[in-house]
Design a protein that fits this description.
Blueprint: E1 2-6, H1 13-23, E2 32-36, H2 48-58, H3 70-81, E3 87-93, H4 96-99, E4 110-115, H5 120-126, E5 129-132, H6 138-149, H7 152-155, H8 157-166, H9 171-182, H10 189-197, H11 214-224, H12 228-237, H13 247-254, H14 258-270, E6 275-278, E7 281-283, H15 286-299, H16 302-327, H17 351-360, H18 362-375, H19 378-395, H20 398-415, H21 418-434, H22 438-455, H23 458-474, H24 478-495, H25 498-514, H26 518-535, H27 538-554, H28 558-575, H29 578-594, H30 598-614, H31 619-635
Parallel strand pairs: 1-4, 1-5, 2-3, 3-4
Antiparallel strand pairs: 6-7
Amino acid sequence: MITAIAGTAGVGKTALAVQWAHRIRDRFPDGQLYANLNGYGVGPPLRSQQVLSQFLRALGVPPSQVPVDVAEATAVYRTLMADRAMVVLLDNACTADQIRPLLPASAGCLVVVTSRDRLDGLVARDGARRLTLDVLSVPESVALLERMLGGRAADEPLAITQLAATCAYLPLALRIAAAHLTNHHDWRVGDYLADLRDGNVIAALEVEGDQQSAVRAAFDLSYGSLAPDEQRVFRLLGLMPGTDMTSRSMAALADCEAPDARRLLERLATAHLIHQHVPGRYTFHDLLRRYANEKVHRDVERRDREAALNRLFDHYLHTARAASDLLYSQIIRLPLDKPGAAARPVVFAGYSDARGWLDAEHTNLVSAVQHAQEHGPSRAAWQLADAMRGHLQKCQQVVDWLIVAHAAISAAHSDGEVLGYGAAQFNLATAHACLSHYSLAVQHYAEALELYQRAGWKLGEAAVHTNLGWIDEDLGRLHQAAVHQSRALDLAHEGGWTYLESTALVNLALLRFFDGRLEEAAEHNRRALILSRQAKASGNEGYALDGLGVVAFLQGRLDEAAELCGEAVDIFCRIGHSADQALARTYLAAILGASGQAVDALECANIALSLVTDSRSDRRVEAAARTAVGVAAGLLGHRRGRLTSASEPSGWPGTLVC
């Protein structure tokens, strides 16, 4: 069932769809999916693949398992939706082709589409029912104004009726006019109406599909009533490359302090020119965004626009870098100059704050990379992409990762920046490696290695060898993997990069373990543990402890093994690495089971499984957690046929990547 709600901008399509979907949600017990397709915004429309990626993650597909091919992703999406009863709300669509991959095949699902386009193709080919919204009737318009204005409306009934007509009975224009009057209690409706009718002063603002000049006039009067600093912030919001803005990012864009930015944003929200769609995050209707964009390009000098965007990009770059340095200390990144005072990067209190910022700003960061690549400054695109790599790798949102990596390559190539181009190739290589596209990954790593050698960046060379070793280990080429990891170790030691040296040692320990050389594996991990603690690389410390714990387990030292793996669990819990914590818990569960503590083993394994399920993380870790649950349950006789002995740990800390 497909319903297409069509109508002009500001007529209330989204409000109707959202409120109605909320009202009938009990008829669709499997839930609702929503996406704003940005069909008529200032930025580019959302690609079908991006929406499919969001939907598949919402349906429980781990980010690393989301297909990057549209046809394949559509097939998975339709398979998952086949037996569900859900509402799919596709807001602000521009074409039928944008929508079709997002249509489920299940007869139990309802799709609601909103668009300014009639979407004739969707009606003719896909059987959609079209509902065309007109403007409000005269009584409805008057009722809306009366509800918003209260008793004032009764004092000037004729002016209220004339105001409704001047606003062309368009809900958006009516609401803005009423909000404007509400904010000026001393104004008479008749006086405001006279000003509104004199709206040809801003007739230069053209919005396709606008109802006469009503919206332009309403916007201009609301804008004109703002104080100069409020007008400036509204104009600058028109430069926003992403979907929303916080007071901290607004402070960078406007070059003011965060409390002042918050006050100004609140003032704009009070005037109904923007709205706070979630606490602390502000956005606005696409008509108002277009209005702000045209205002800033008409009224603000180019150099001032560029300066504002540079401040915002610097804010994103240095905040993303600070978060990544805290969360993913083992991942190498390009050298950066210190941020300028205007960048105002966020200072994080701990791991959860850093992770929360990256998650909340994810969409804006992706948009910023794309915007910088398309419009400049290109340096911001490849630097920000490099700063985001640890986050993209950990969250495994591969569609966005590929978008960012390709944009970085284009930007760095146009800049002629050797080191930046190498980092962009490295980024794309790592994305392909995570997708098991090994031949492509090796190709891009080879490009990165050659560029790093030209630039003389030994740290980057070591990182390439580390990741090539990861690929060789995954493909079973253990000797070649050891060659790469040994080269990485030598380069890291020569450069004095202790955290990277600890990474190479953990990886070599894994290879020695596979060869059955447990003492050498333990020795490598002991050295890695010392170095990672010196470098304050908590993740590497946890991996080294895990490795030592597994060796101790296999050598029969169960108490020591439990202590080591327990320390690793505590570290991964503290830094918020769910998949790593889950894997460490599977080891601990095996150790507890072998120690005769089957009840504790089952509890530990179940926690591991819940962690990896909630985070939708690595499927290998999920397999290890499920194995641990099965072994512990068997020890307790919770299935037919009791196991006679505890299994060995069902995994090993995988190769660490840079």
